[in-house]
Amino acid sequence: MTSASQSVVPNSVTGDVTVWVQVLVDSPGAQGLYTYSVPDNCVVRSGDILTVPFGTQLVGGIALQLCDVLPNDLDPSQIKPIDAVMRSAFFPPVYWALLERVATYYYTPLMQVVRAALPPRLLAKSQRRVRLLSADLPDAAQLAELLSPMGLKLLQILQNSKTGDYAWQFLQRQKIKGLAKTVRELTKVGLVETFFEPPQGIRPKLQQAVTMLQSSPAQLTDRQSEVFELLRRRGGEMWLTELLHVSHASSAVVKALANKGCVTIAPQEVLRSEQYEVAGDQAKLLTLDQQAALATITGLSGNAEVLLHGVTGSGKTEVYLQAIAPLLAQGQSALVLVPEIGLTPQLTDRFRARFGDRVCVYHSALSDGERYDTWRKMLMGQPQVVIGTRSAVFAPLPNLGLIVLDEEHDSSFKQDQPAPCYHARMVAQWRSELENCPLILGSATPALESWQHIRTAPVPQRHYLSLPERVGGRAMPPVKVVDMRQELIGGNRSMFSRRLQSAIRELQATGKQGILFIHRRGYSTHVSCRSCGFVMECPHCDVSLSHHQTHPDAMSILRCHYCGYTQAQPSRCPSCDSTYLKHFGSGTQKVIQELKRLFPELRMLRFDSDTTRTKGAHRALLNQFAKGEADLLIGTQMLTKGIDLPQVTLVGIVSADGVLHLQDFRASERAFQTLLQVAGRAGRGDEPGQVILQTYTPEHPVVEAVVRQNYAEFVTAELGLRELLDYPPYGRLILLRLSSPEAEAVEKGAEKVASVLAADPAAQYEILGPAPAAITRVARRYRWQIMLKFPLDVALQIPSIERLRSVSGSLVSLSIDVDPMTIL
Ligand SMILES: Nc1ncnc2c1ncn2[C@@H]1O[C@H](COP(=O)(O)OP(=O)(O)OP(=O)(O)O)[C@@H](O)[C@H]1O
Ligand SMILES: [Zn+2]
Ligand SMILES: [Zn+2]
Q1: pLDDT tens figures, 97-155
Q2: Ligand 1: nearest atom to the Cα of 317
């Protein structure tokens, strides 16, 4: 594939030079680019959305590249013309350059990247229609002279349409010879145009609107002038339903106004978006550290990268807000990326309070219709702030002035599957280069990669900015470690230490609130037989089943967190028939049951992916908690981030061990980040906070680092270990994942792929594996992997994927993960 960035050449058809266009075709059968010719009367630019003939169909496509020489293996007589230009200059050229870069770096076909970037079904099922442009046609004699017989026939058909338009497929059935040519003929003389109708379900939503036409019409009835007056006071335009509702008038009254020529009633596009209501808010007086950071950021011009390293509660968000405000005033837009939807409500509220409806939210939990509308709003080019998760890094914002990645260390910025397995931080770096705008990476616990990237290379465009203290001189909450082995020795068999219990009791007494962090959702992590040791496992995956039980009398359910398999818990051990099945480990549900037993009065809210599945559930739960409707918020990973509630004085970590003992070279880094983030939720208001961290391994270096809350110290030690092993950020990785329903096929396939990799003369990598994945079977597929370790500063070059796929065998699927984050 060739680069689209060099191809902003408008089609200048002069003389007999034929112009060819290379098109990215949106059809499941399409691979790579296809060449079409551009008909004489047609102007194509790269970035246009086209329809092209493909096989027996007409499909959507995107013009990537224009050329005036045909690749020499192609026969000009075999090349078909494009059918029509549906939308001109839909995408700016730098946008294409970005998508191409993603495709190349992540070894993914460009069309797949396009699909990841575009809202769903934008091209896929769009329907092409033809419409009459004007009702006043020239007279019959003139038309007969102007048009071919087929042209006349088409015109007649369209005139018979009530709406003046017909679907292409309908017209094809009307026996018009050379429909495409005929439509072009009519287009050329300005009688018709073709357009894309968005797919069903995501077409623009229309609603009747009433618009005032005169300022003070005479001769109205009392009722009519009342309604008219109301409309005028509301700015002269209202939705019909709203006007009827507010004025208590009947639609006959409004119709009468329309008949008298005072108003029009016409359908208008409603842009669907999440409903919200927030009070306005003003810029805060910055602390000295914030001021210094903001001064650097606003002083940047063009491409630059900033690491904003601010401890939890140091006011990073306020810096983003004040950095964005002047951009909007200058007509530029900003993109703010956040890791998870769970923490967007509070953040989006803050942005909306400051910038009102110039804020758009874009994430995968929106309905297709909402996503489509948000896209349209973005493309309209008004200065705006888009807040979104990972995929919003592709938001087509014209005139981008700044990109912010909040909580940049978070692993949910990386897409694990499907391809492209991109990291939004990487894509944001490219985008800021291509758009020539600054990028801010914000975190209390920066990723080692980001820290190393900014700190080591003394490049003028990279800035390290620090906010070492909390706003308002608030203290960081002290972290108290409780050794759970000592508790056991002291006779406490509960999962709550005496210290945590008394802290919870104190919460209740003083009316404060607390957050309890548990590593796992569900009830317990696994179920096994005390008599024979049998562990209940998923029949489709090599993992143990988790036990779920919503309340003590509810049925016990076993669930696989990898494939969703669910079964009732048997009453006897399937292996030895004993009745001694026991639950091990504690999930959110078990913690809640235990707390209910210890503190019958305690009001609790559970916040994990089980309770936040429905739309708006995050916001509802957080609102309830913020309003003081519960004493304790109990949840998983999700509540480590972003929650900013001044009344929270206690954070309890029920067991740090689950986070500490993961088997991956990033385990320590992740554990440190998670624990420090969750600790940071305490003491953000006027009352000081405290953190109680329970563990069986208090001497673990990560626990010690969390107690000292010293990022730099932790990072220095951790970087030393990484350097010894050439792991990132001292080397780079590509993970090849193979899977198959056949155990033997995947093992053989992995070995063959590894031997091709080893035989590559250009190889600059070290091969680790092939080896079975840590979880060797998921959803009935056996999994193997091969890790390639590259030194820094060499290109991540591997043999072609087609080659690797061809040797891996037909039963095996192979995917490539560049810079993998999870290696399970
Ligand atoms: N200059 C300021 N004056 C007064 N209050 C401020 C100021 N800056 C921020 N705040 C408030 O301090 C609180 C913490 O700020 P913010 O949430 O932005 O911190 P943060 O650094 O993003 O924290 P975290 O990383 O923990 O999410 C917020 O309630 C915010 O409104
Ligand atoms: Zn048993
Ligand atoms: Zn399973």
Answers
A1: 899 899 999 998 887 888 788 765 555 545 678 888 876 777 888 888 888 999 989 98
A2: 18
Domain 731-818: CATH superfamily is Ribosomal protein S10 (3.30.70.600)
Asked whether 444 lines ligand 1 (CB < 6 A), one says yes
d(CA 341, CA 274): 13
* CA dist., res. 475 & res. 471, Å (int): 9
Decide if pLDDT at 435 tops 80: yes
Ligand 1 centroid – CA 307 distance (Å): 17
> What CATH number is given for 205-270 in this structure?
1.10.10
Place of tokens 């509660």: 313
What ligand is nearest to the CA atom of residue 580?
2
The ligand whose atoms approach the alpha carbon of 533 most closely is: 2
pLDDT tens digits, one per residue of 73-88: 777 778 888 887 777 7
How many whole angstroms from 538 Cα to the centroid of ligand 3? 5
Average confidence (pLDDT) over 530-534: 74
Binding annotation for Zn(2+):
529, 532, 538, 541, 560, 563, 573, 576
What pLDDT does 10 receive?
37
ipTM of the complex: 0.95
C-beta of 100 in contact with ligand 1 (< 6 A) = no
Q: How far apart (Å, rounded) are the C-alpha atoms in residues 736 and 773?
A: 11
For ligand 1, is residue 310 a contact (CB within 6 Å)? yes
> In sequence order, what are the residues at sequence separation of 6 or more whose Cβ sits closer than 8 angstroms to the Cβ of residue 425?
405, 408, 413, 441, 447, 450
CATH class of 479-523+586-720: alpha beta
- Average confidence (pLDDT) over 187-216: 71
The closest-lying atom of ligand 1 relative to the alpha carbon of residue 287 is: 1
pLDDT in tens, 703-744: 999 999 989 889 998 898 888 888 889 999 999 999 999 888
Ligand 1 pocket, residue 477 CB under 6 Å: no
Checking if the pLDDT of 768 tops 70, the result is: yes
Task: Tell me if 680 CB under 6 Å of ligand 1.
Answer: yes
**Count of beta carbons in the 10 Å neighbourhood of residue 746:** 28
User: Angle CA(540)–CA(544)–CA(549) in degrees, nearest 5?
Assistant: 110
pLDDT of residue 6: 33
Superfamily of domain 20-120: PriA, 3(prime) DNA-binding domain (3.40.1440.60)
- The domain defined by 128-197 folds into Arc Repressor Mutant, subunit A (1.10.10)
pLDDT digit string (tens) for 600-643? Answer: 888 888 776 565 656 667 777 788 888 888 898 888 777 776 67
Name the DSSP class of 535. Answer: B
CATH number among 1.20.1530.20, 3.40.50.300, 1.20.1730.10, 3.40.50.11900, domain 288-473 = 3.40.50.300
The reply to whether ligand 1 has any atom less than 6 angstroms from the CB of 316 is: yes
| Mean pLDDT in residue range 296-309 | 92
Decide the pairing of beta strands 385-388 and 359-362: parallel
Residue 614 confidence (pLDDT): 65
Which residue ranges does the chain devote to CATH 3.40.50.300? 288-473, 479-523+586-720
Q: Where in the chain is the domain with CATH 1.10.10?
A: 128-197, 205-270
**Percent of the chain residues topping a pLDDT of 70:** 86
User: Measured between alpha carbons, how far is 533 from 537 in angstroms, rounded to an integer?
Assistant: 12
Residue among 289, 312, 318 to mutate when testing ligand 1 (max atoms within 8 A of CB): 318
Q: Cα–Cα distance between 702 and 209 in angstroms, integer?
A: 61
From-to residues of CATH 3.40.1440.60 in the chain: 20-120
Mean per-residue pLDDT for 403-410? 94
C-alpha–C-alpha distance, residues 127 and 51, integer Å: 10
Return the amino acid letter for 292: A
Contact of 98 with 437, CB cutoff 8 Å = no
User: Would you say the CB of residue 281 lies under 6 angstroms from ligand 1?
Assistant: no
Q: How far is the CA of 576 from the centre of ligand 2 (A)?
A: 4
